[in-house]
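[Discussion] Sanity-checking designs against the backbone

I'm trying to build intuition for which residues belong where. Below is a structure token string of 241 positions. I'd appreciate it if someone posts a full sequence so I can compare it with mine line by line.
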């Protein structure tokens, strides 16, 4: 009988420990608040935004911030964040973490975590930009012979057209190099009083062989969504592979 009582006591104790393993929603909320998770996520958004909008105007930065908030902002992910905390940590771990976060050292680390999150996000965004730039400037190894470089391609006879309220640009690409150019992208940048306001692109189908030209047409929005008001434009041949 004594053995049975002891075994039953151990079973009850084990069940109690297991029941306490999964944190309550209240405990999760306490942890998130004490860890200042919302402020840390906001710092990440700001870090990405600062790096990604370093050379853009305030309007463009606002659009970047809007996109970031819609994808990784606190109002977007707070429920998922809480669910992940609840899934990952035990009640005992969160209680221990709360005890530390309330200490002087924990409070100091919490504040520094926000700056760390912002700097880390900016670092990641910078690395992404650098790798993207390297990849875009590196010729692909697709078995083709060397291709014409951007400075051997020229946009000629470019004209802005406006028909039935729809704006588009027409012109031709000339290849002054010695190799064919494939996947040529034409980029039209619009300006108002010297300030960049809009951009549209298109790809030239097929190859532009040396000494020849290919026509292109760049459509700018649609009738119900016209391009930004502008008074000048510049055309670039972005790449050819």
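Best answer:
Here's mine. Compare freely.
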């Amino acid at each position: 009988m004594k053995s049975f009582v002891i075994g039953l006591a151990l079973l009850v104790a084990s069940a109690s420990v297991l029941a306490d393993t999964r944190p309550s929603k209240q405990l999760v909320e306490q942890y998130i608040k004490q860890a200042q998770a919302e402020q840390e996520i906001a710092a990440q958004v700001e870090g990405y935004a600062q790096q990604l909008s370093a050379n853009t105007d305030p309007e463009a930065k606002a659009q970047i911030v809007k996109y970031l908030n819609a994808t990784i902002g606190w109002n977007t992910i707070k429920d998922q964040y809480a669910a992940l905390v609840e899934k990952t940590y035990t009640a005992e771990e969160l209680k221990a973490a709360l005890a530390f976060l309330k200490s002087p050292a924990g409070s100091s680390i919490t504040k520094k975590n926000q700056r760390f999150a912002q700097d880390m996000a900016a670092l990641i965004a910078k690395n992404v930009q650098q790798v993207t730039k390297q990849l875009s400037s590196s010729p692909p190894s697709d078995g083709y012979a060397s291709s014409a470089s951007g400075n051997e391609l020229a946009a000629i006879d470019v004209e802005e057209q406006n028909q039935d309220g729809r704006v588009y640009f027409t012109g031709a690409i000339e290849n002054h190099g010695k190799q064919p150019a494939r996947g040529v992208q034409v980029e039209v940048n619009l300006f108002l009083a010297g300030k960049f306001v809009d951009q549209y692109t298109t790809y030239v189908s097929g190859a532009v062989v040396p000494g020849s030209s290919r026509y292109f047409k760049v459509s700018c929005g649609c009738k119900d969504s016209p391009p930004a008001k502008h008074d000048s434009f510049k055309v670039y041949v972005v790449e050819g592979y």
